[in-house]
Each structure stands twice: as structure tokens, then as C-alpha cells.
Design goal:
Elements: H1 6-9, H2 17-35, H3 40-45, H4 48-78
Length: 83
């Protein structure tokens, strides 16, 4: 079974609050990108520039989804204006 590597390698001991924050900071971007559908292997091996590019694409996708949802809600509430 594939899982996030930190679940099997980094989370085996009790950590101090500082160590927990450090680990969370290190894994946050790859995990968030994976939550948006970017393969974890790709996010883990990406350079800083590649991560920034992936985030730009994810943000554009989120904006497009928001616009489509707002349009669909408007159509549902006010109709398409044709009678």
C-alpha cells in the first residue's frame, strides 16, 4: 500500500512542538499539491521553481472552479434571463 512517506519514516517517535512544526513545514507543500491531484512523486521531486509553477496552475484551476460555481448558482437563482 502506498502512503505518504512521512507516515512510515518520520512519525514513529514522540516529537517536541518545534520538531512537529519543522516536519509539517517540510511536508506541507507536497501534501497540499497531492490533495489537489498532483502526483506525490512529482511534488516530492520538484524544484522550488517547479513547485511555484504547480501552485500557480492549482490557483488558476481553483479560480476557474469558483467562477463556474458562481455562474451556475446565478443561473439557478435568477435564471438565464430568457422568457
Amino acid at each position: 500500500m502506498k502512503c505518504f512517506p512521512f507516515l512510515t519514516t518520520e512519525s514513529t517517535a514522540t516529537w517536541s512542538k518545534e520538531h512537529l512544526q519543522e516536519a509539517a513545514n517540510r511536508w506541507e507543500e507536497p501534501i497540499r499539491l497531492a490533495m489537489h491531484g498532483v502526483p506525490l512523486d512529482l511534488a516530492m521531486k520538484a524544484t522550488r521553481n517547479q513547485l511555484d509553477m504547480l501552485w500557480t496552475i492549482v490557483q488558476r484551476d481553483e479560480q476557474d472552479k469558483f467562477k463556474m460555481q458562481a455562474h451556475a448558482t446565478g443561473l439557478g437563482v435568477w435564471g438565464d434571463g430568457k422568457k
